[in-house]
Fold:
Amino acid sequence: MGITENTQKVDIFAKARGGFARAREAEKMGIYPFFIPFDEAEGTIFYHEGREVIMLGSNNYLGLTTHPRVREAAERAVREHGTSCTGSRFMNGTLTLHLELERRLASFVGKEKALVFSTGYQTNLGTVSALVSRGDYAVADKEAHACIVDGALLSFGELKRFKHSDMEDLDRVLDSLPDEAGKLVIVDGVYSMGGDIAPVPDLARVCRKHNARLMVDDAHSIGVLAEGRGTAAHFGIPEEVDLITGTFSKSFASIGGFVAGDEDIMHYVQHNARSLIFSASLPAPNVAAVLAALDIIEEDPAYVRRVWDNANYMRKGLAELGFDVGNSQTPVIPVIIGEDMRTIFFWKALFEAGVYTNPVVPPAVPPNMALLRTSYIATHTTEQLDRALEIFATVGRQMGLIQ
Structure:
């Protein structure tokens, strides 16, 4: 019997050519807010098509990307080590610089050992997928970063979600899982959209009740909370968090990431995390930049104090103007608008007036919770922040968002 073809053949590119029109429509309308090229930037200011814009959308919390010591460290590393190791950590890509950074980071966050990856995304991807095996469960906060979700999906275990920072729902989810199954609860230390801090003491209590391990992603906490040491240190309980991960692309003024925990767990991850074993290692200039940034954070607490001063100043100023800043507790401050297109038009008007923010619409946030994500830098001047508030006030009133 011959094979009868009774189904239509589909080109896998069809979705790209005909079914993805939203971005094109936004481009035609002149309101596409992503992939904007910057001519040059010094941290708090950037230039777009020759026009100066105040940066309120960066994760450069301490402003160290332009610090002379960080730049000099990176330049010196290029001269001494070149631009790349051209191999993975597993093979020919481990330098003594990597080991020094791992030692320093472990001490900084209060753990036995740390392991450096080439990006923060790869850190969570590799750590979660290495530890969550068949029959295990990754239990993630519904607002946890995409790399945590992707790490769970790439594992042979099962992903479960619980309502954002809701301990009753976490308790319910964990209670529904088999006692004999391994369980890894994963949260962000500071949530990148709302700017709220994870309730780590409560999370640790629920995890202990169910014999679950706790992993906290400190991407937006390192360099910001507890003199820069992160969320567990902020609550004074580093021993109750089993794994701490972080990124270098924010306060540490570079790129890369790390995981820290007990020595035997790090040894296991080192030999099982595919994103570590099969990726080229972090280049020496990036490692050196992180080490220099870490020196500055440990030696000069004024940078951390200053980012908090600026964040508190703007949180108060935006709220007094009448904007909804949600439950932010950190230098990440959302301006919640609600309706998607109104948020995009507000972003566009602010940008044209000289302030850059990050527009965030569903599914990155819940329906009717579209917002502008603003974030603040230690090196913002009061004059820059006052100018930004003036622009928010003028544009907000013109659009009927505030009185």
